Each structure stands twice: as C-alpha cells, then as structure tokens.
Amino acid sequence: MPRLLYCLLLYLGAPLVWLRLLWRSRSQPAYLDHLAERWGFYGPPPGRPVIWVHAVSVGETRAAQPLVDGLLAAYPDHAVLLTGMTPTGREAARQVFGERVWQAYLPYDYPGATRRFFRHYKPRLGILMETEIWPNLLAAAAAARIPVGLANARLSPRSATGYRRFGALAGPAFARLVGVAAQTEGDAERLRGVGAAAVTVCGNIKFDVAPPAEKLALGRAWRQALGHRPVWLAASTREGEEALVLEALQQVPDDVLLILVPRHPQRFDAVAALVARTGLGFTRRSAGLPEAGTRVWLGDSMGEMAAYYGAADLAFVGGSLLPLGGQNLIEAAACGCPVLVGPHTFNFAQATADAVACGAARRVADAGELGQVVGALLADAAARGTMARAAGAFAAAHRGATARTLALISRWLDRAGR
C-alpha cells in the first residue's frame, strides 16, 4: 500500500516533472537532451554483459572513478553502464571516462520506466553510489532478479531520520539491496537501522581519487604567474554563501586574491553579477588570468578543481557556512591544501572530524571568523605548512576503500551468477 500511494503521487506529479525540466533548461539547455531516456527508452544496448553503476551527478561521478576504473580492469569482457540524472554529471563522466563507459540517464522512478530500463540493459549487477534509494527501481530489479548493491554508502543522522519517517516505503527498498559497502561504522549503523542488511564497512572511495597530474601542473603554473600574492580559494560554494565569503574577504589584506568557485555551473553568471555589485575588481577564469589589481577570480570552469587547489595557499570548502551539509574536503587534502570548513558538515561528518582532529583542517563558526582565520593563516607560512603536511598524511592514511569494495562486488557478482 505505501508503494501504491507513492506511485499515485508520482503520476499526479508528472506535469511538474516536465515543468521542472523546462525550468532547468532555461539556464542549462542540455536538460532537454536525451528526454526519452528519463522515461526508460534507449538506443541499442551493449552487445556484451553489463555492470551498471549509478552516480547521480558530478560529485558522485568523480568519486566513482576509482571504482569504475577497477571494474573495467577486473571485468574486461563486460560493458560498464554509467547512469546519472544531470547534464553536468553526464559531461563530467565524458571528461573522466571518455568512450570507456556507456552513458545514459537513469529513468524517473515510475514502474513502467524502471521495468523498461532493466529489460533493455539486463545488467548482471547494479551498483548505486552513496545513497540513491528509489522504491520502484529496486522493486523492478528484484522482479527481474537483478542484484543491486550500495557502494560508498553514507547516511547522515538527518537523512536516517527522514527515511525512518517513511519506513513503510523506504524499509523494503533498503532490504532489497544485495549488500552495502558503507563509508564508516556510523554510516553502517544508521543504514542497518533503516532496513539494510549485509552492511560492510569499506571506507570512503573518494580518498582513492588521485588528483589529475596535469591539473596540478596547471595550478602550479597559475601560482607562478600570480607571483607572490597570497591566494585564498573558496571551493564549491553554494547559493547564499558567496555573499558571506565576500564579506569575509573584506577582513583580509588587499593584496589577497580570492578564487571563488561556485558548486553549480548554472550559477556562474549570478555569482559574477553578485561580485560585480560589490565593486571589487574581478575577472572570470574563462577570460584568462587575473591582473595585479584583481581581488576575485571567478572559477567558471568544469573539471579544474585540482588546479584551483594547486594554485591556492589555503582553501575554504563550501556548503558548510549554511546548513547544507558541506562539500567534499577530501580532494583538497589529497592536493596537500590546508582546509577551512564552516559549522555544517553533516554530509561528510566523519571525514571532516578526522581531518580536524589530525590538523589538516580547521573549523570556523561564521563569516566573521572565516575572515579572521584566513588572514591569520595567510600571514603564517609555518602554520600553513604544518596543515598541508597533515592534509597529505590524512589523505594517504585513508586510501584502500576501492580494493575492499571491489572484493565485495566480486562476491555480489558470484551470487548473481548462481
């Protein structure tokens, strides 16, 4: 009955789905590409067995790279189908994997669409990245006898509370998973609490994502071109945070360059307009390197975050000044960049706590403290050096999750072959 009510709401909301796609296409026309795939209609499938990996958007796609690379190496006779939900995620997959994987949109969670997806691709195994739980998708997989597991799984206390609130719908979906590779013991405990079985702690695959050497070299070239100016990076900022970051910038010396990189590319123009209204001298990455008097360099590019980290003396990782849960600080640590975060990091609670505990990161309470700490650290090369070394050690100490997850996936595939 709960799933019937869920389906009824989905069908009643179908016009809103179309309206949302049209609305998003105003800033990203690519939302109107491949529309048939969102309802389960696809071109010819691969002519060999399929392992299906679902990564909802950009962050999950880039985090999946070590796992997908491992699958391609371990199962060369299989095609890897990588599904997502956003045009930016699809473009990120093209940048990362090229033609090595098949790409498609995962259909919306309508019963007919999910059945068509499984009939078309017939994957031997499905792997959902992080926490993508869709009741009809998992019911259709079970009906087609296709095992689906959850990899790099995380579940915050807030999300766990939400799933328990709808336990009659979410519980059976979690119970249908063939297994779960959780990031931490805390995630594992919460996942078991919402109905998942066979939960194994494998660690966080994001620690195994190596920063691209060519991007780090690009960042070093930028740093050399910028001369001796102190450089502060605000990475993956979310809506409402840029104004706070610009407020913090007022507290640091005038020679400091802020590299401001919004999380979502569809907001690049809006953030540019915001910076322009402040009267600060700024330029965009797409226009070239900043000049001597520039205060803000707007990072309006995709796939260059490692270069931005490589150019920075210090980074603030966004999504954390406002109650949004925080973005991934692991990439910054892997690049050896000292990290600052705000008070709201529930999306990466364990990784953030570990980074703070080992000295790789520092937490600030608000924009005022952010400006104070940025100014103090940019004036203290020794302190930044200590944080940078701690960041590198922190990233190195947590590697290995991909190998543990691949071993678990091997057991899932063995079960699928019986």
How would you describe this protein?
There is one protein chain. The protein has 19 helices and 14 strands. It has 418 residues and is α/β, with parallel strands linked by helices. Strand 13 (339-341), helix 16 and strand 14 form a beta-alpha-beta unit. The protein starts with a helix and ends with a helix.
Question: What are the key terms here?
Answer:
alpha/beta; Rossmann fold; 7-stranded parallel β-sheet; 418 residues; 15% strand; single chain; 19 helices
Tally of helical runs? 19
At CATH level 2, the architecture of the largest domain is: 3-Layer(aba) Sandwich
Kindly give the count of domains: 2
Q: Tell me how many strands there are.
A: 14
Helix proportion? 40-55%
What is the 3D form? globular
Structural class: alpha/beta
Rounded to the nearest angstrom, the radius of gyration is: 22 Å
- Give me the CATH superfamily of the largest domain: 3-Deoxy-D-manno-octulosonic-acid transferase, N-terminal domain
* Main sheet summary: 7 strands, parallel
CATH topology of the largest domain, by name, is Rossmann fold
Q: In percent terms, what proportion of residues is strand? A: 5-15%
Average per-residue pLDDT, rounded, comes to 94
**Euclidean distance between termini CA atoms:** 32 Å
Strand order of the largest sheet: 3-2-1-4-5-6-7
Just give the CATH class of the largest domain: Alpha Beta
Task: Pick out the low-confidence regions.
Answer: none
